[in-house]
Amino acid sequence: MSELQTVSRPVPLGCTNLKLRQLMRQVSRHYDDEVGKSGLKGTQYSLLSHVVKLGPLRAVDLATAMKISASTLSRNLQPLMTAGWLVMGPGADARSKLIAATPSGCDKRTEAQQHWRVAQQVLNARLGADMVSALHGMLDEAMLRLSARADESQGSPDGPSEEVSGH
């Protein structure tokens, strides 16, 4: 290729935010329809899974792991605590509290996980395993790049948090 020739790169058309929200609504509806058979919403299942997998932990650590705000976490914890699936107990000192799953919460998570697996398998079948893997890779890379930009602008040394897979 000569210096005069340039490689044509596609220019994104449309709003990325809108496209992601449209996809997210469809994916959320798909998971909610299946996981809902257990009596949980997809967001509740994700929260319960994080607590079961990560063990008793402080709310701030749970919010960080889930990449959500403290107020969103607080709002989403309430129904799970009211149902008796999560409890808030004493922490390392008098000021700290730890969130833990109860035995019935662990049972509810196991029940919901069976439905989550069905939802995941159906999604994999509809999109194809290659597309799902590619989508995961692109999303992970996009989150890494965006969090790196945020860290640079805020001077934060924290990297991306661990994901709870197979929840």
Q: Explain this structure to me?
A:
The chain is mainly α and 167 residues long. The protein is 63% helix and 6% strand. It has 6 helices and 2 strands, in the order ααααββαα. The protein has helices spanning 16-35, 42-54, 59-66, 70-82, 103-127, 129-154, and strands spanning 86-90, 97-101. It has a two-stranded antiparallel sheet. α1 (16-35) crosses α5 (103-127) and α3 (59-66) packs across α4 (70-82). The chain is globular. The termini are far apart.
Summary of the model, kept short:
By secondary structure, the protein is mainly α. Helix content is about 65%, strand content about 5%.
Residue windows where pLDDT falls under 50 for at least 5 positions: 156-163
Radius of gyration, in Å, reads 20 Å
Q: Can you list the strand order of the major beta sheet?
A: 1-2
- The helical percent reads 55-70%
**SSE-based structural type:** mainly alpha
Gap from first CA to last CA: 49 Å
Number of strands: 2
**Global mean pLDDT:** 88
Q: What share of the residues does DSSP label as strand, in percent?
A: 5-15%
The outline comes out as: globular
Tell me the layout of helices and strands.
Layout: H1 16-35, H2 42-54, H3 59-66, H4 70-82, E1 86-90, E2 97-101, H5 103-127, H6 129-154
Antiparallel strand pairs: 1-2
Helix pairs in contact: 1-5, 2-4, 2-5, 3-4, 5-6
Q: What keywords describe this structure?
A:
167 residues; mainly alpha; two-stranded antiparallel ribbon; 6 helices; 2 strands
